[in-house]
Amino acid sequence: MTTGEPGQPRTDRSPWNWLLVLPIVLPLLTFLFNADEPRLLGFPLFYWLQIAFIVVGVTTTTIVYRMTK
């Protein structure tokens, strides 16, 4: 594969790729959501924090994609 320039090999060694570790490790930290309070619109912490993890994953993936494009 090439990057579009002849003779240039494709490289995936961008430091931006390390940002993708965040959405993997963050949900594994159980102490973050091991509580019932605070509630957001009546939902316990666990449920709305799972939605926040999705937002973090989409955001970090978008940033890495745009920075390594």
Please characterize this protein's 3D structure:
The chain is an all-alpha fold and 69 residues long. The protein contains two helices and no strands. It has helices at residues 22-25, 45-68. It is elongated. It starts with 21 loop residues before the first helix and ends with a helix. The model has no long low-confidence stretch (mean pLDDT 88).
Fold blueprint:
Blueprint lengths: L21 H4 L19 H24 L1
Radius of gyration: 18 Å
Summed up, the helix count is 2
Class by SSE composition: mainly alpha
Range of helix content: 40-55%
Low-confidence stretches: none
Q: How much beta, percentage-wise?
A: under 5%
Pfam families: DUF3311 (PF11755)
Protein name: DUF3311 domain-containing protein
Keywords: Membrane, Transmembrane, Transmembrane helix
InterPro entries: DUF3311
Sum this structure up briefly:
The protein is mainly alpha-helical.
Keywords:
69 residues, mainly alpha
